[in-house]
Specification:
Elements (H helix, E strand, L loop, with lengths): L1 E4 L3 H7 L2 E5 L6 H16 L3 E6 L17 E2 L4 H10 L2 E5 L11 H6 L3 E6 L10 E5 L5 H11 L8 H14 L10 H12 L4 H9 L4 H12 L2 E2 L5 E6 L1 H7 L21 E8 L2 E8 L5 H8 L3 E2 L3 E6 L3 H12 L3
Parallel strand pairs: 2-3, 2-5, 3-4, 5-6, 6-7, 9-10
Antiparallel strand pairs: 1-7, 8-9, 10-11, 11-13, 12-13
Helix pairs in contact: 2-5, 2-6, 5-6, 6-7, 6-8
Bound molecules: guanosine-5'-monophosphate and manganese (II) ion (MN).
């Protein structure tokens, strides 16, 4: 599904001087990459731009240019609220529902600014003044490139913004392997390399700079993996105790869910992580199995057809039972 509603965007944009860029809670590579890339572009056009994100993001994204000036709402509500209240224009990147912005939601709802959504998730809410929604896109970072292309802004791209966009494309496509990766995705990546991105260096910063605890957590998770009797579903999990003992930190389990699909015959997998007595989930599937719907219907979440997330307010033991009952474990 694609919905482009950008009539009148340029006039509104021209008259905006203060701009705020936001993304979703627990920002990932695509959320941070798109926000920081767009910030660079808009600053080159003379705008005053703040990036305000709901809560902290993983350390492996701190190499992105502009990282030092990001406002983290959960750690400084006053600064975040001031930026949001004073903004003439707000960009909503990599999310399409206010509920994805955690504590920032009310401030965003109340903002007087015009609102522009750029996003690739399913079923966008209808509040934005301007919308660029395309669920076939590999990443919001690719959409930032396309957005710049639409408005003739490619001349404002540079090595810094290119690195940010490349980071989001790489993380959201599983290094160019998920189904939303198209010829155009590679074409955009090639333009970004032309702007100075060094893929090997950037991959190293993203994937090969992880704490040892990541591998220990992975080992614990794989050791207790559960396979459905027919082998088409895989449950992966980590308890709060394990996370505390081994040393969980934000973002450290990123990508763990994908191991569940690497087994021959598995078509769907869930990774659950217990935190403060509740459970955060990631779901992944192959082909026609729609985990966006499954997450919306049974796991208080959503996302894409083959990659979604959600939350259960119960212990991990109950969540495992609940998942087996909900997913038909046979
Ligand atoms: P991940 O499993 O990597 O956290 O998320 C997979 C996809 O689902 C991402 O595109 C993410 O934005 C989306 N997602 C993750 N958690 C939630 C959630 O609680 N609600 C909704 N609506 N989407 C989610
Ligand atoms: Mn994304």
């Amino acid at each position: 599904m694609k919905e482009i509603r950008l009539d009148g965007f340029m006039e509104t944009f021209k008259s905006a001087s203060k701009i705020v860029i936001t993304n979703h809670t627990n920002p990932d590579g695509d959320a941070m990459g798109s926000a920081l890339a767009l910030q660079q572009v808009l600053e080159k056009m003379g705008k005053e731009v703040s990036v305000v994100v709901p809560n902290p993001y993983p350390k492996f994204l701190s190499h992105l240019y502009g990282n030092d000036s990001v406002l983290i709402y959960s750690e400084g509500k006053n600064a975040g609220n001031t930026a949001i209240q004073e903004a003439d224009m707000i960009f909503h990147l990599d999310y399409n529902a206010y509920g994805r912005t955690a504590d920032m939601e009310q401030a965003l709802r109340d903002a007087k600014a015009s609102k522009t959504m750029i996003d690739h998730h399913q079923q966008p809410e209808d509040w934005p003044d301007f919308m660029y929604s395309d669920t076939d896109m590999s990443s919001t970072c690719q959409m930032i490139y396309e957005f710049c292309d639409m408005f003739g802004w490619l001349e404002y791209l540079d090595k810094h913004s290119a690195e940010s966009m490349y980071t989001g494309i790489v993380t959201d496509t599983g290094s160019f392997k998920y189904s939303a990766t198209t010829a155009r995705t590679h074409e955009v990546a090639s333009k970004l390399i032309g702007l100075g991105v060094e893929p090997q260096v950037l991959h190293g910063k993203i994937f090969d700079a992880q704490p040892a605890a990541r591998l220990r957590l992975l080992g614990a998770m794989l050791d207790q993996m559960q396979l459905s009797p027919s082998g088409d579903k895989v449950l992966l999990y980590l308890t709060e105790k394990q996370c505390d003992r081994i040393g969980f930190e934000k973002g450290i389990t990123e990508g763990f869910v994908n191991y569940g699909l690497s087994i021959a015959g598995s078509k769907m997998t869930i990774f659950m992580r217990e935190e403060k007595g509740a459970v955060k989930l990631s779901l992944r599937s192959e082909g026609q199995i729609d985990v966006n719907q499954i997450a919306r219907n049974g796991f208080n979440g959503g996302g894409h057809k083959n990659a979604a997330g959600g939350k259960l307010e119960m212990s991990i033991a109950d969540a495992l039972d609940y998942a087996k009952a909900t997913l038909v474990w046979e």
